TrEMBL record:
EC number: 2.3.1.87
Gene: LOC114440238
Domain N-acetyltransferase: 33-204
Entry's family note: Belongs to the acetyltransferase family. AANAT subfamily.
Compartment annotation: Cytoplasm
Name the UniProt record assigns to this protein: Serotonin N-acetyltransferase
The organism of origin for this protein: Parambassis ranga
Pathway of action: Aromatic compound metabolism; melatonin biosynthesis; melatonin from serotonin: step 1/2
InterPro entries on file: Acyl_CoA_acyltransferase (IPR016181), GNAT_dom (IPR000182), SNAT-like (IPR051635)
Catalytic activity, reaction form: a 2-arylethylamine + acetyl-CoA = an N-acetyl-2-arylethylamine + CoA + H(+)
One function term, GO molecular function aspect: aralkylamine N-acetyltransferase activity
Record flagged with keyword Cell division: no
Keywords: Acyltransferase, Biological rhythms, Cytoplasm, Melatonin biosynthesis, Phosphoprotein, Transferase
GO CC annotation: cytoplasm
Amino acid sequence: MMSVVGAQPFIKPMQPSPSVSPGIQRRHTLPASEVRPLNTQDAISVFEIEREAFISVSGECPLHLDEVRHFLTLCPELSMGWFEEGRLVAFIIGSLWDQDRLTTDALTLHKPCGSTVHIHVLAVHRTFRQQGKGPILMWRYLQYLRCLPNVRRAVLMCEDFLIPFYRKSGFKVLGRCAITVANLTFTEMWYPISGHAYMRRNSEAIRFPQHPLTLPLTKTDEHVDV
């Protein structure tokens, strides 16, 4: 999920809100849309979206609730959530891996010295599907990974019917995955992470891991199709 990188920095702080006169009150205090890293307080919302998205299709969840909490504790900076007026509508959870191909250990381990980001799950709330949110969030996530100086690629495993979806995001097929879950088999895909120099030139706008920022969605984002 947008292989073309815009000329503007990927992550920007929100602009200060204009002052509001005492006689005019804002109807909502939460931003209409924001993208931020997840934390353990988001775990239940994450799992509810994931369970609905995957159980009905494959009968298995990529991550169980305790595993969601596990990764959001160890590496929250490798997660990303899209919120609409404070409600989680889409998310990605990743961790670091240190081998060329995924093994069963990659399902539960975070390798801090690894240079590969293993994307465990991307899911969108059912009422927000078919709006381009999945591809937009993946695009933002992949561009964010360019901020991380030691990351060289992203990998994921998916069922075959999802291969065209991830190809549209720039992923390439590595081959059959060594991991199986119950009777499910998977294809392993990868995406090269480059462009570190560009992101360093915009270092004032990429403090995402240390200082979570609200990321305003642009008009361009709203017109990207699934």
